[in-house]
Amino acid sequence: MLFYHLLNASRLITMNFVYHKKLMIMKSKVSSSLNGKRIVLLGGTSGFGLATAKAAAEEGAQVVVASSRQQSVDRALAELPEGSVGYTVDLTNEEQIENLFKQIGEFDHLVFTAGETLQLNELSTLKMEDGRQFFNIRYWGALLAAKYGNQYIRKGGSITLTNGTIGLRPWKGWAVAASITGAIESLTRALAVELAPIRVNTVCAGMVRTELWGNMAEADREGMFNDVGGKLLTGKIGEAEDIAETFLYLMKGNYTTGQIVVADGGGVLV
Prior knowledge:
Layout: H1 2-31, E1 38-42, H2 47-58, E2 62-67, H3 70-79, E3 85-88, H4 94-104, E4 107-112, H5 128-149, E5 153-164, H6 175-194, E6 199-205, E7 208-209, H7 218-231, E8 238-239, H8 240-252, E9 260-263
Parallel strand pairs: 1-2, 1-4, 2-3, 4-5, 5-6, 6-9, 7-8
Helix pairs in contact: 2-8, 4-5, 5-6
């Protein structure tokens, strides 16, 4: 009788061990799917680009960031783990973008978050050259990054672009910005079809506390954040780290492509 009790106990211990081992393996596959991956972030030196770089690095990814200003690159590298790499590049210059990817070589995921500080104008005061420059970085820059970067993306890799909810609910004075979001949304779906099996998605962010609003006086900026945040379903505006989680999801989501994922605290509903 004692023998059978010991035998059953041994079997139970073995079964528990096997179960927990399988559970650990499953958790490892989910939580560490970016471990050892190489991620290129254009615009990854500030805002939710930098937040995404930090979050990916914490999961074991090796990150490559690029910006138009060397000072921004240096500052970002000082905040990122050892082994991170940075480049200076004009994302409106096709030749520089092509050469950038030649220098970088093969990688797994491309994230495009580049964009200048917002300069908003109503149509009556809009300078067309400013509007064209807005498109040059946010639309043409994204298109060029996909054009020259896709050939270096390894099997199972992805491209994730950046968008804003202003295209879903435009405000007065946002005509140029809203039209770009529509262009990026269409580009996302077109690239997903053309570049398959590379997955292409876009993060559509609501109001987030980043350097994007740096051209506003602090009192005005905080007043806007409080006003908008108070009306959201979450009761507050987003932080860069919130949006970074959405980028990480899309890099890991092997069955997701051609999608626009909205992270806005419920802003489009209120």
